[in-house]
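Work Package 3 (structural annotation) set out to generate three-dimensional models for the target panel prioritized at the project kickoff. During this period the team completed the workflow that converts sequence records into discrete structure tokens, so that structures can be stored uniformly alongside our sequence database. As a representative example, we reproduce one entry of 461 residues exactly as it appears in the project archive.
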Amino acid sequence: MNKEFKILLLLLAGFLAAYFLPVDSQRFQGAIIEAMRLVKWYAQEHVILCLIPAFFIAGAIGVFVSQNAVMRYFGPKANKILAYGVASVSGTILAVCSCTVLPLFGGIYMRGAGLGPAIAFLYSGPAINVLAIVMTARVLGYQIGLARAIGAVMFSVVIGALMHFIFLKEERARAAQMPQDVYIEADDKPPRPLWQNAVFFFSMAAVLVFANWAKPAEASGIWYGIFAAKWWLTSVFAVVLGFSLWRFLGVKLWQVVLAASPIVLSGLLFPEKPLIAFTVGSVALALLMFRSTPEMKDWRDQTWGFAKQIAPLLLGGILAAGFFLGTPEAKDAGIIPNRWIQALVGDNPAVFYGIVGGTGTVPGWLGLIWPVWTNFFASLVGAFMYFATLTEVPIVRGLMDSGMGQGPALALLLAGPALSLPNMLVINSILGPKKTATYVALVVVMATITGMVFGIVVNAS
């Protein structure tokens, strides 16, 4: 009966939303148009050169890098420095969201992993997702992208260590009750040397980096030189990738040559439109996965799994960002007025002071606490919101275009992807309310402090 009642409430809510839909409102109509414009902009600027290569890399990580070989270092027999080190970068390997990481966290914790390394793994898993870091740097700028990557690694270690020391007595009692041989075994001997995997992954990462190399402000210097040669550099590393497929992954040479032929032909026919050759290359690599080795087919399945899981959610996030906040070109065309955003998370407290009825000069005490408030509010809201993988990037882009400061933007990026209300409920079932509340508080406080420091550094530079 309860289930049927919930269905009735959902139907009623949908009816009321449709009945009172403000279709005649100019702001509502403009917000719909801005949502479509943002999707178009995102498709043209980021999907082919950034998102698709990132999917290929994430899929390769899922096949050619063993999760068990990483998680084994969390056990009680592992070196603590090594355990925290591995946990702090696990997100680059796992590429999961705040909810997907929970079964992995629960599994390693129940098998005997220490609270500190397990918490570091829990935070790092979604926080430094390789897709999200690349997308953050591409869409929000390299400063926030770099700060997010460094901050997330540091967060995972510091928060894990603090959780270990806060609950040290309980952890010692738990460790004493554990069997001495509880740890996760490594996989069998890997099919190829580590250096071969390194060359393979480096070539893909280089293709991604150089294809997305942005034009610098000044038309001189080394950065502009790299930009001028970006497509030549991309081509060189694409050749290295093809060589890796043949020599390291067992793809037949004739298959690699056949796949490369239309890429070369596209480059010769359309030398002024390298995007065509890049697109043909992505299609050729995808087709190569269908008619080659079992590992390549596994890579195909992993890549497709990421794409079909993330792409619809990402599309929804972009539409929502455009509808609520508008596009970079039309900053006040979204359904939410810019003044509201500026009032809550903007750099200048004068907007908030004016909205609440203040007149004259902003009080000194408000200016003093303003950086604390904006970063804390962004961290707290981010902690309770659910961000599917990558959806936080277009949402934060929209917030920044609407007046959000760079400090609060970083604070939201550090707190949001790693936490959510569903995430907290599951963690509570594993760790209990005291540990869960402590973990959430540590994330929010550290995100607030980091956002404040970052905002001061950026504004001073």
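Residues 169 and 175 are 10 Å apart (CA to CA).
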